[in-house]
Amino acid sequence: MWRKIPDWLIYLAIIIALYAYANRTSDKIDALPPPPELGPMLPNETPRDERVIVNVERAGSGIGTAFAIDDTGRWMTARHVVDSCDQVGIDIGGRQVLRVDSYVSKDSDTAILTGSWARKPLANDLFTNRQIGERGFFFGFPQGRPGEVVGALLARNRMIIRGRYKSEEGILAWSEVGRTKGLSGSLGGLSGAPVMDKDGEVIGVVSAESPRRGRIYTVAPENLQDLIKDRNIKAEALSLNSYGIQADRLRRERRIAQVICIVR
């Protein structure tokens, strides 16, 4: 003869089933996006590359990002961050700013900063051919605060700078696919930041953005080959799980630092 199952046992079974289903659903919602669909290798620069027009306004005080490129006190940032500044400094922490000299490039949106404060340089990979769809990790100080962005490589473009000075160069275009939680709007302040590949190696420098299109533009690797030398620096691989932690570590170590431009 069958015994009646207690009501509390039925309710407990229902609760367990609902909890298990909720967990499975949550896993699906919170799961990281799948690896990008990689396309063909990035083609060489051609006259048909899409043009990006950038107007550089009159010089004014501002901020940007720089990163160490050797262990003798040399740093790299974007030219437009420090061009025409009366004084340039690097925030070395503890409310201290180290004054540095700046040397702007005439061939690319880059500048070399030199000073007496040396840090361990970032690793780089400027000779490997890049692949459409690969992830790029941008670490710096957007809006003057620590932050990072993730992009997917789209294509080669050609940047034409007008305004305070004139230049023209090949660049890489990235589609933004993620950024620091709570960071919205313009990425101003990220200029000069390194873009790093999945192996944690520098492959470019942030030069411009198009917020309306969700694009970030970086100096092409080949334009950095004569400026950054490979010193066999060990790099740490980056992933969607870990890039925020590693970005914070590089900023704490001041291997990536904030640049301050003063115009009187």
How much of the sequence lies in strands comes to: 35-45%
Distance between termini?
96 Å
Q: Which CATH class is shown?
A: Mainly Beta
Count of helical regions: 3
Radius of gyration: 23 Å
Helix content: 10-25%
For the record, the count of structural domains works out to: 1
Can you walk me through this structure?
The protein has 264 residues and is mainly β. It has one domain (50-262): Thrombin, subunit H. 14% of the residues lie in helices and 37% in strands. It has helices spanning 7-30, 79-82, 243-252; strands at residues 50-56, 62-68, 74-77, 87-93, 96-104, 111-114, 135-140, 147-163, 167-179, 194-196, 202-210, 215-219, 256-262. It has a six-stranded antiparallel β-barrel with strand order 7-8-9-12-11-10. The chain has a six-stranded antiparallel β-barrel with strand order 2-3-6-5-4-13. The longest helix is centred in the first third of the chain and has 24 residues, at 7-30. It is globular and about 45 Å long. The relative contact order is 0.22. Mean pLDDT is 88; it is low at 1-5, 8-12 and 14-32.
